Automatic annotation (TrEMBL):
Coiled coil: none
Segments forming domain VanZ-like: 24-141
Protein name in the entry: Putative integral membrane protein
Residues that span the membrane, as ranges: 12-34, 71-90, 97-116, 128-150
Pfam families: VanZ
Keyword Endoplasmic reticulum in record: no
Chain intervals for the UniProt region annotation (Disordered): 163-182
Keywords noted in UniProt: Membrane, Transmembrane, Transmembrane helix
Cited InterPro entries: Teicoplanin_resist-assoc (IPR053150), VanZ-like (IPR006976)
Keyword S-adenosyl-L-methionine: no
Length: 182
């Protein structure tokens, strides 16, 4: 067995575990958010930003914390699982944050759009905002420190097989000029 192949299998397992956990979390989120609910009445859709958060805060401390916390935590694991499944160890922190938050926002938007056809589920723009904020907070709190820790580990071969973002992709190709016929 050549040197570094153990690192390659560990990297593959690392990414596979991230992909599995991501799929499991998305199935759970789908079940929570897209199952029909049997409710005696439904409130109207909330399309005014921050109106639902203001209404939650008017309910009092415990209820507001519970409702806002649920919305923040629903998609927060994506802030960690998306970079984990991607497997990049050396990457721009801002680029990683932007990619992860954009993916979380698009997934949250997709969930809100799918909820329009689910009985008992109501579209809420504040859910979109809070879900996206939860993804961003989880990413900022965990991913940069974890990547730094993994880069400083004693076993550099463990993650040597993970893809890296190259700053240079080589020279720009040129096209030979072709003369124009008279």
């Amino acid at each position: 067995m050549r040197q570094g192949s153990g690192g390659r299998t560990a990297a593959i397992r690392f990414r596979a575990a991230g992909g599995f956990l991501l799929a499991a979390h998305l199935l759970l989120v789908g079940w929570i958010t897209l199952r029909p609910l049997d409710v005696p009445w439904m409130s109207a859709a909330n399309l005014e930003p921050l109106a639902g958060i203001k209404a939650d805060l008017a309910l009092g401390g415990f209820q507001a914390t519970r409702r806002i916390g649920e919305a923040l935590l629903l998609l927060a694991p994506l802030g960690i699982l998306l970079p984990l499944a991607g497997g990049r160890l050396v990457v721009s922190p801002w680029g990683s944050l932007v990619r992860t938050v954009a993916a979380g926002a698009l997934l949250s938007l997709g969930i809100e759009l799918l909820q329009t056809g689910v009985p008992g589920q109501v579209v809420d723009i504040d859910s979109l905002l809070l879900n996206t904020l939860g993804v961003a907070l989880a990413h900022v709190a965990v991913v940069p420190a974890t990547r730094g820790w993994l880069r400083r580990r004693k076993d550099p071969g463990l993650f040597a097989a993970l893809p890296r973002e190259d700053l240079s992709q080589g020279p720009t190709p040129t096209i030979p000029r072709v003369g124009i016929a008279p």
